[in-house]
Amino acid sequence: MGKNVVTIDVQKTVYDAAVLMTENKKGCIIITKREAPVGIITERDIVRRFVYKSLLQRDVKVFEIMSKPLVTIDPDSPIREAARLMVKNAIRRLPVVKDNKLVGIVTSTDFAKHLSQKTITEGVLEAMARYPSVPPYS
Questions:
Q1: How would you classify the pairing of strands 36-42 and 28-33?
Q2: Which of 59, 94, 111, 117 places its Cα 20 to 30 Å from the Cα of 87?
Q3: CATH class held by domain 67-138
Q4: How far apart are CA 61 and CA 114, in angstroms?
Q5: Cα–Cα distance measured from residue 29 to residue 40, given in angstroms and rounded to the nearest whole number
Q6: How far apart are CA 25 and CA 6, in angstroms?
Q7: Alpha helix (H) ranges present in the chain?
């Protein structure tokens, strides 16, 4: 768990939240009212609920705001290498590229899904626990 959580008062603006998120390199901010947590704003919230509705500058080109250089990984790389690259570069999305062609993307959500799956050993132990012990054959 991360302990360096950025907060902002419920009366501050979305602009203030975006500035704090950028300055602190955070993907979310906890909203507080009298120091008690009451909500959360994520990058996705800002894009989907604020920017989409505002569209103040329709002529901004994607290359002006894109992250670069693009950090990628080969599809044959181990999952540990993907995790290492994501942590090292503080990214949550890692494009998978083979022969300079995009073939997929690994996200932090993919890791969470992977870690939540039972291993074969866990499945066998769970199945064994459902049956009472059988005495060995004599």
A1: antiparallel
A2: 117
A3: alpha beta
A4: 36
A5: 6
A6: 10
A7: 14-24, 43-45, 52-54, 62-65, 79-88, 108-116, 120-129
Token digits for 20?
């704090």
Q: How many residues does the chain have?
A: 138
Quick one: how far is CA 109 from the chain centroid? 6
Q: What per-residue confidence (pLDDT) applies to 77?
A: 96
48 versus 11: the higher-pLDDT residue is 11
Please state, in angstroms and rounded to a whole number, the distance separating the CA atoms of residues 28 and 18: 9
Q: Which of 9, 89, 38 is nearest to 20 (CA)?
A: 9
Global pTM reads: 0.61
Q: What is the pLDDT of residues 65-122, one digit of tens each?
A: 667 888 889 999 998 999 999 999 988 888 899 998 888 888 888 887 877 777 777 7
Domain 1-60 indexed as CATH 3.40.50.2300:
no
Domain with CATH 3.10.580.10 in the chain: 67-138
